[in-house]
Structure formats: C-alpha cells, structure tokens
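Issue: ligand-bound run for guanine - logging full I/O for the record.

Environment: standard queue, default settings, no custom constraints.

Inputs:
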Amino acid sequence: VAIAASCSSPSTAEAVVAEGDAIRTGNDIQAVRGSILHFLRDPGEAASAPAYEFFEDGGLVVRDGKVVAVGPASTVLANISPRRIADYSGKLILPGFIDTHIHYPQTEMVGAFGEELLQWLNKYTFPTERQFANQNYAEAVSKVFLDELLRAGTTSALVFSTVHKQSVDALMGEAYKRNMRIISGKVLMDRNAPDYLLDTPETAYSDSKELIDRWHKKGRLLYAITPRFAPTSTPAQLRSAKRLVDECPDCYVHTHVSENKGEVAWVNELFKNDVREGTSYLGVYDAFGLMTRRAVFAHGVHLSDADFSLLKDRDSAVSFCPTSNMFLGSGLFPYDKAHGMGVKIGLGTDIGAGTSFSQLHTLNEAYKVVKLQGGKLSGLQGLYAATLGSAKALDLESKIGNFERGKEADFVVLDPASTPLVKFRMERAKTPQEKLFVLMTMGDDRSVKATYVAGKLAHDRDEANKAFADGANTK
Ligand code: GUN
Ligand code: ZN
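Outputs:
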C-alpha cells in the first residue's frame, strides 16, 4: 500500500489548539490516532490518481463534528495536546459504514425459516410490522436497532419503517438524539397486504407530507418516500408518490425491485394495463416518474442490461444486499456487470431478510456472490463499497464517506485482533491488502472497537460488552 502524502498543513492543527483553553476529555476528543484508510475514488476504476490514502501511523483531527485534517500523525497531531487525542495505535480507522437498505421493524425477525420472498412477507413480515402501530413498541425497537447499527460500525443508513406514521416518528426521534445520518420514511402500501397494514393514495400523500415537514433536514435526518414495492401500490398510489417527489425533489425514493423471479412475473401481470407493453419491472417505476438521482432500488438481482442502462441514465442507485439474496434464495446480483456499466451501487444489509447488521460480514458474502459469477471483489473494492461507494449511492458524498476536510466526522475503529483466530490469521498476512481482505472475510461486530458519530464516541465495544455482561449477571 502506497503511503500518500498528507494533505493538511500545520496551520490547521494550530488552529485546533488555539480554539479553546478548556481541556476536553471523554467524548469530546479533538483527534484520534491509529492506522487510517479512506477512499478518494473507486479503486475498481482505472484512474491516474490514487483511489485511497493510507496512513500507517495516522491522525484525524475533528472540530465541531467535522474533519479538519487527516494525515501522518507526526504532522497533523504535532500541535495537539496528548490529552485531546484518543490513541488507537495498532487499530484501523475507516469512515463509518453506510447501509443503503435496511428495515428497522424487522430487527426482531432475522432468521425466519424456510420461505422465499412472497411467502416470507405474508408469513413473517407483515405480522411483525403490525406491532409498529404502537409508538412505544416502535421506540423500544428503534433503540435496539440504532444500538446494533453502532455496534456494527454503521453510522448512516437508508431505512424502511412501516406503514404507520408513528413508526417513523419513533425512529427519527431516536436517531435525532444520537445525531446520526438516518434516512427513512413511512411505507406506502394500498393493496396486496393484510388490511391492518394498508393505507390509501390519499393518506400515503398526507401522512408522508406531514412527516417530511417534521423530519426532512432536521439535524442530519433526511426523508425517503417509500413505496414498499410495485405489487403493494396501486397506480393511484404511485402517482401520490410522484406528487411527493415533485414537491420534495431532494427527498429520497426508496423501494425494492427485481428481487425474486415470482415477484417479477407478478409485477408484469399487475401492471400490464397501466404501462406500455414490454415495460420491465424497473420500467414501471420509471413510468411513474420515480427514478430520480435520489432513488435507491434494493436488490435488482434479475435486472436486464437495458434496466442497468436505465439506472445509469436516471442516475438512480441500486442497493446490493448479498446476505438477504442468499438467505431468501433470491439469486446472485450481477455486481461486476452493474459496476462495469457505471451504475451507482450501495451495500445493504436488508435486515431482516439479511442476516447480519455488519457490513464486514455483508462484504464476506458479497465476495462469494461475485465469485460464484467468476469475479473477484478485493478488500479495497469492498471497503470502498461500504463507505464512499455507498455515500455516492445516497448522493451524500459531499457530506460523508471519506475524511476530506469539511466532511462529517463519522468513523469506525477496527480491531485487527478481535478474536484469537483473527489475530492468528492477521499475524500471517503479508501485505496491507491481504490484511484488509482477511478483515472483510472474518470481520464482524467484534471487530468494531469503537464507533464515532460526528466526532463523538457513540459506541465502545469493551464498555458495551461489560454493560451487557453486568446486565446478564443481575438477571
Ligand atoms: N420486497 C417487499 N418488501 C420487502 C421486504 O420487507 N424485504 C425484502 N427483502 N424484500 C421486500
Ligand atoms: Zn428490503
């Protein structure tokens, strides 16, 4: 790994010290030290400039929740009091992971046995989501969910709530308290689901509108207009979604597409009188004007070349969810093809069809999905996908995804010796690239020593484990 030159000047570091006399302790650190890796562009693309910076003994300086400087510790930390530096020497600091597709209400139903998508929805998912009509229940699950994201090193996520307004209020309220970059919205569904989960084209509009007013751009939160998937929305409801997009063009559109072959056939049947003949499943969303540059389509396992071209033309993104696609037996996402065509691809866990909150674990499965189709996903490519690549998929690369000056200081501290076996294996890795790949193959939430949100410590593994053990002991 080439060690790139620091881009910070000593004067920036001095400015940090001059800022205040008070000695800051605890959560209010001003800098961290450790090995630092972040991406400047896609390492999978041919380019003359380096795709990443790696500082073996690096420093990251933070002020007011934003990155002030990153570079060699000897330069950027030179004028900072050791009392203001959290020292993670020997560990690897990366930008916080970004999850581009996850369902918070499904936290409690990971590992629901035996079904493919449509039966899985009816048998397990819809009854689970019914409970989120109760705001207290939704608040309790929101806390567990956000704790789990942080334990996995994930600081930003695009999240499905349920059809209930209060499910969004619960999640957004809790995320606001934690200052996390969470994007969510009320699910729109007015057909092909149990009555207890249905809204209408009118309430889809009015409830979403109210929630947009309440949450979009409040702190770091953003709103996603969220039709569940084409089969559960009537054409009238998709027109309501489009009206919301027109009235809030920087809101997201978040939905599912072409995940399962039975689902694809069903959409073709359901919409055959509503769209031009030959329109694909993705084309249905396009026909209703929902393919914006802030649209994220989960899965896309069965998309055609023409569909990928359409995604590229519209500058919409697809969320690759390998653990989910394997768990439900949906199929293999053609990652290399989509990537080669220049489609924006984010990485998603898709909890609860997905089986892990950890983007490291998700990358382990991503590697296998790519490999089964004859490709190879390197450690660098994988970690790019989980950070800057996913930031681009969310159209948020100007705010998160790497450590360029001015970006929001969300980061994760990874422990290369998280278990005896990982430590044993890492000691035998000969190059930094090999270490990254081992991290991506063997890593999980145990690898996450600490997670910082906007420069503040939001999770410390060892403290959390102690609290968990103490809690278990008092039961
Ligand atoms: N398609 C429509 N709803 C869902 C869902 O909740 N999970 C997954 N994986 N696919 C869906
Ligand atoms: Zn999903």
